[in-house]
Amino acid sequence: MENGDYEVPENANEHCPGTQSESAGKSDACAGCPNQEACATAPKGPDPDLVTIIERMATVKHKILVLSGKGGVGKSTVSAQLSFSLAAMGFQVGLLDIDICGPSIPKMLGLEGQEIHQSNLGWSPVYVESNLGVMSIGFMLPHPDEAVIWRGPRKNGIIKQFLKDVYWGDLDFLVVDAPPGTSDEHISIVQFLQATGIDGAVIVTTPQQVSLIDVRKEVSFCKKVGLPVLGVVENMSGLCQPLSGLKFLNVTETGEQKDMTEWVLQYMRENVPEMLNLVAFSEVFDTSAGGGAKMCMDMGVPFLGKVPLDPQLCKAAEEGRSCFDDGKCSVSAPALKTIIEKLLSELKVSRPEIMEDGA
Question: In terms of Cα–Cα distance, which of 332, 339, 330, 333 is closest to 278?
């Protein structure tokens, strides 16, 4: 909501002059407003740091936010694997972690214990490969168990610092991994990047209603702030793994468990060997309401696809490696690859032409 060129808080009084107006907090309309003191003392006019941010981001072609209204849906996993995949295609990629209180990106990229270095150009990202750089507050903590107990203004300050002080160089993609919700960090990153041109947001959900209720709010947030929704990813869309990777138990009436895995596998090898090539699938969450695809249809946003709950993908995230490298993520990697191809198509981006040695 705006008054002229000035932003107006949602809980403001009628006839609010706007937060950046010279009369903010001082006009008759401000009397009794809960924001009166903050508006009266806040600095007025355009933020001078936005000029620096615009200059920094001028070398970044595409900016993608990875969002979710719900925590625990695998948003950081999607951010990490998206970055791994784009880098493997030959793109220059940066991954910015703005989850200030729960930075998991350093672990998921195999960068735990690394530190940020300063150069005459600014902060240098920590590199996984020469074409994949990462920035996170996780690199600044004195101990990995250290809690970040910050109020909104300090969170906003570090996000701004990441944008204006990190020297990424020329990037094809900057992937921004955001925390769950629709509050401080989200408002800040959108406001700081809007003038630089954001391609849009990839929104991550799981299939059940308890997740979709919050994710719908995230879609509404994007529409409200003018952030395009590039598509929705339904993560953990059913437990899916090769039959040969399952454990088989005999559970007694008293709850005692006896491992029967080797007996079952041996039986299949001898009698039905073709079953060892099958993939077992089980619905983990209730999908009776239609899941992410139905939500996208209702809200008029693209659906990028489903990623199954794959134990091998979870293991890859724990070990900080790409799920595309060794063929172990046989059910999740193809699904993610299809989603990423759809995303590139949505952005109208072609794979870079990688020069042959000596060419």
Answer: 330
Q: Is 278 helix (H, G, I), strand (E, B) or coil?
A: coil
Q: What are phi and psi of 126, to 5 degrees?
A: -90, 130
DSSP tally for the chain: helices H, then strands E: 11, 16
What are the residues whose beta carbons fall under 8 Å from the beta carbon of 185, sequence distance 6 or more?
A: 98, 99, 100, 155, 156, 159, 178, 179
Residue 8 pLDDT > 70, yes or no?
no
The answer to whether 215 touches 289, Cβ cutoff 8 Å, is no
Strand residues in the chain grouped as ranges (E): 2-3, 6-7, 60-67, 93-97, 117-119, 122-124, 126-129, 132-136, 171-177, 200-205, 229-234, 239-242, 249-251, 257-259, 279-282, 303-306
DSSP state of 166: B
Determine contact, residues 219/299, Cβ cutoff 8 Å. Answer: yes
Q: Residue 193 and residue 239: Cα distance in Å, rounded?
A: 37
Residue 302's H or E segment, with its range, is none
pLDDT digits (tens, 9 = 90+) for 70-124: 999 999 999 999 999 999 999 999 999 999 998 999 999 999 999 998 989 999 9
91, 202, 330, 341, 352 from 327: Cα distances, Å = 22, 25, 6, 18, 24
pLDDT tens digits along 288-306: 889 999 999 999 999 999 9
Task: Compute the distance between CA of residue 24 and CA of residue 11 in angstroms, rounded to an integer.
Answer: 14
Q: Does residue 149 carry a pLDDT above 70?
A: yes
- pTM for the full model? 0.84
- Residue 343 and residue 346: Cα distance in Å, rounded? 5
**Residue tagged 């994949």 (tokens):** 132
